User: Fold Glycosyltransferase family 4 protein from Methylomonas paludis.
Amino acid sequence: MRIIFDAYELIQGQGKSLGIYNYAKNLLKALVEEIDDKTELLVICNSANQHDFSYQHPRVRTILVSATPPRKIARLIWFFGRAAIETRKLQADVYFSPKGFCPKLLKTLSPALKTVVIIHDLIPLWYAEHFPGYFGRLEEWFINNSIVSSTKYADRIIAISQATRDDIAARTGRTQGVAMIYNGISVPAPGPRPYPHPYIFAMSSTLPHKNAEGILAAYQAYRHQTDSPLPLFICGIETTAQDGVTSIKAAYASELHAYFAYAELFLFLSFTEGFGFPPLEALAHGTPVLCSDIPVLREISKGTANYVALDDSAAIGRKIVELLNQENSVELQNQRRAVLNEFTWAACAKGVLKSILN
Assistant:
C-alpha cells in the first residue's frame, strides 16, 4: 500500500501551526518504526521542513515538491489542485493529511484513492460563533468551509480526543468512519530553576479562546485574598503592567519546562481546546493544575487536575488560595505523572496506521 503523508504546507510557525508541525514530525517518526514491507510512505515536503520529514528507510521516500517554503498563493494552489495532481502522479492508494484539511479534486483525479484526515479541533467554527470575522470574513469562510468539507467527506477521520470527536458529531452530524486516537506527549527534562522563590505559572496567548484576560483577572482576585501572594509568570502574552505578573518567552523547550516543573501551581483557563497540551505537560512534572472545566481537559487529565468555571474570577481566586495551601505530596505528584502513560507516540502511530490500513 502506498500512503502519501502530506507535509507540504507544514512550517515551524507559532501557536497552532507549530503544534501541528510537531504533531506531524513526531507521528512520522513513530510511523517509520511501525510500517512493514507491504507499506510504502511517500512523504511530501518543502525545502524548509525536509530535514524533519526525511528518513533513510527502504519503505520511506521523500518527495520534495518546493524549493522554498510555500506562501499563501502556493498553499492555495496546492489545496485546489496541485495536491491532487501530485497524488495521481505517485499512484498512491491513500492520501493522509496530518494538518486537518482534505485538498480538492483528489477523488476526481484518483477515483480509487482513500483519504484520511486528522482533525485537531473545530475551533475556527467556535470563532465564527463567538468572534465572527476575527480573522477576516474571507479567511473565516474559507477555513470553516474547508474544515467542514474535509470532516464530512474524507473516507476516514481521526479525532485527537473524544471531545473533538463529539464536536464533529454535533457540528457536522458525522459519526461513522471517525476514530479517536490520542496524541503522544514528548516531555523534555527541565532546565535550571527559573526563579528562586515559589511562583505560579500560566500559559495563554493573545487569541481570545486562550482567555488571557480571564487568567489575569483570576490572578488579581487571588492577590486580594491573601497577604503573601505568589508572583505569576505567564507565557504567550505581551508584557503587562499588572501587579505581580511577569510575561516570559522561553527560547528552548528545557527552559519552558523548567517553569512547568518548579511551579507551585499551573493555570490554564482556555474557553475551548481540541486537546490541551499544556496541562498534560505540567502534570508530567507532577505540578498541580487548575484548568477550565471543559470536557476535553477533564478527559485528558483523567481527573488529576482541578477544574473551575470561567464566569467568576473571585471563585477562581479562592480556588488558587485553596490549592496553594494544600500539600503537594509525592503520591499526588506520581499520580499526575502516571497520566502520561496514556499518551505515547508509539500508540498514536499504531492507531493511525490501523485506521489507514482498514
The mean pLDDT is 95. The CA atoms of residues 157 and 178 lie 5 Å apart. The first strand starts at residue 2 and ends at 6.
